[in-house]
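seq:
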Amino acid sequence: MDISVNIIPVPLKMTSAFIIRDEGTILVDSGYPGSEDTILEKLHEIGGSPEDIRLIVLTHGHADHAGSAAALREKTGAKVAVHRLDANKVRKGIQGKLHPTGFAGRILGLFFGRKKASMYQALEPDILINDSLELEEYGVRGKIIHTPGHSSGCVSVLLKSGDAVVGDLIFPSIPSEKPSLPFWADDPAEARRSIKKLIDSAPGKIYIAHGKPFSSAEVKEKFFEPFLKAQNRKNSDVE
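struct:
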């Protein structure tokens, strides 16, 4: 049985949203405020219309992901889903403080953390996600899973095909563009645990918001194979 699902990236200002088309259509993330027309134009390009979107999934409550959610809900009639731990960000339209994990986050945070860049139109979410949410009701074979770390309420969309859309759980490092921790994380250790949870379940492509997709193998090699090799050497020494 063919379980492939179309994942269509929508390049926006410094980020990407994703249209997922199966028997039904959902949208993952909404970009900064003012991104709604670009997203709907892309939908039109691929033969869709606004009312095709049955669900808008916000991977978290930062402005570059939730900024156009209110406008898109009005234009599409779709429900907006966010994890309950990021719901207050969406209700207030304020992303909150960014916590850098390294030099790039400290420098870029001077822009992305500014008040103007961190605020957007507030809305009351229609659906609050807990640990997971099945997507079959919306015509997509897959589910939303909780992958905290970047923020406490980050989620990823895991499809039956093995592909995943993860928002800001993984960033491309500078300058190598290899998989890396996000530039900002409320809890870096939790982000690592979420990445492990993800690659244990997603053997296909991993689509990130700020760069090209990675294979699960690339992510595993970057984050976990050095540890496994060191552990194997340690075990060999003991023997």
